[in-house]
Amino acid sequence: MIIVAYSGFFSVCVAFMVIAFRPAYREWRMPTDCQPLPVSKCYTRHTGHFAEAFRHEILSSLAASPEACTGLFEPVPMHAERMDWEKATRPLIAFHALRLQRSVKCAVPLYVNADLHSIGHDTFSGLFAAGHVHLGPHSELREWAHAEGWLTLGVSCVALRRVSSALAIELKNRCCFERLHAPTIYFGAAYRGTASRGHTDGVLHSFESVPGAIRRSDSLFMVQGNCVLPRHRRFAGSLIVTGHLVVGAYTIVEGDIKARKGLSLGSESIVTGSVVSEGDIKLFHRARVGGVVISEQKVIIGTGAEIGTIDQPSTISAEAIIVEAGVIAHGTVWARDVGTVWSS
Question: What residues does each domain of the chain span?
Answer without folding.
Answer: 49-166, 204-342
